[in-house]
Design goal:
This protein has 13 helices and eleven strands. It is α/β, with parallel strands linked by helices. It has one domain: Indigoidine synthase fold, CATH 3.40.1790.10. Strand 3 and strand 4 form a beta hairpin. The structure holds pseudouridine-5'-monophosphate and manganese (II) ion (MN).
Length: about 300
């Protein structure tokens, strides 16, 4: 039963939720702002297929014509990919205006969590999360993703965070907000393109069942908010840290020079890093998202099994 007048849950997703079958939420900023067309659309469809192959129903999330959507059609995914950066990047603060004006919005991790929670979806797979930017002690640029993890009941499975961010400060922030940071099969927070960042996680977990138990325990105790899981990029697709870090440093310098600020910062840095590293980083990016989608589907299934 959907009591939210702004929310459309796709029939297949609604049926799965009603029957306690696993569902995985997927975000759309990665489609419109994170990858070039047509690879963005191909990847979004491949990610959905991976979720299915691993036993769950995919629910790609976006705002279409002012409606909050949990579960998109192929045409809607194609639209978000083709329009690309023309689609408004929608974080928490953007939702009221986008909905009131009947606009389209590509949802960030924060907004995807919000809509997933409204629909009753508990597990969400993405590439990388936002965090505390380098220099945030002056700019105060801290992603709304972190605040959302503090308050919204969704597990986010990612490949860690890119070092366009200050990973140390990002972990401090999450600690303050009481968000568990879990390494999947690792003691270190992965750094997106690379398996290691040099920063430890709170706990290492080695199976989807264990992830599901941790989530169950958190919510059974009434501890609101999310859990962040860092799932390292598969070894064969991981990149040379020297190459990637050089590109990141250059991108940050250029952003400073051009005075890039606010919500444009993350998309600018991501696009720049991609330009500097060519097709390598794009194919790594695609592979790590597929890897996260598979783990999320298995975790969602394990979580459903606990609630039977
Ligand atoms: N980091 C990535 N890839 C991404 C993003 C971040 O490595 O695609 C996107 C996600 O949608 C994330 C958003 O939620 O950027 C964060 O933007 P901001 O820093 O403006 O909150
Ligand atoms: Mn920001």
């Amino acid at each position: 039963m959907n009591m939210n007048p702004y929310l459309d849950v796709a029939p297949e997703v609604a049926a799965a939720l009603r029957e306690n079958r696993p569902v995985v939420a997927l975000e759309s900023t990665i489609i419109s702002h994170g990858m070039p067309y047509p690879q963005n659309v191909e990847t979004a469809l491949a990610v959905e297929e991976t979720v299915r192959q691993n036993g769950a129903v995919p629910a790609t999330i976006a705002v279409i014509g002012g409606r909050l959507k949990a579960g998109l059609s192929k045409d809607e995914i194609e639209l978000l990919g083709r329009e690309g950066a023309k689609v408004t990047k929608a974080s928490r603060r953007d939702l009221p205006a986008i909905v009131a004006r009947g606009m389209n919005g590509a949802t960030t991790v924060a907004t995807t969590m919000i809509i997933a929670a409204m629909a009753g979806i508990r597990v969400f797979a993405t590439g990388g999360v936002g965090g505390v930017h380098r220099g945030a002690e002056v700019t105060m640029d801290i992603s709304a993703d972190l605040e959302e993890l503090a308050m919204t009941d969704v597990m986010v499975i990612c490949a860690g965070a890119k070092s366009i961010l200050d990973l140390g400060l990002t972990l401090e922030y999450l600690e303050t907000k009481g968000v568990p940071v879990i390494g999947y099969g690792t003691d270190e927070l992965p750094a997106f393109y690379t398996r290691k960042s040099g920063f430890g996680v709170d706990y290492r977990v080695d199976s989807p069942e264990e992830l599901a138990k941790l989530l169950r325990a958190k919510w059974d105790m009434g501890l609101r908010g999310g859990v962040l899981v860092g799932n390292p990029i598969p070894e064969e697709y991981s990149m040379d840290p020297a190459v990637i870090n050089k590109a990141i440093d250059e991108a940050i310098e250029e952003a400073k020079r051009l005075g890039i600020r606010g919500k444009a910062t993350t998309p600018f840095l991501l696009a720049k890093v991609k330009d500097l590293t060519g097709g390598d980083s794009l194919s790594s990016n695609i592979q790590l998202v597929l890897n996260n989608a598979a783990l999320a589907a298995k975790t969602a299934a394990a979580f459903c099994a606990l609630s039977r």
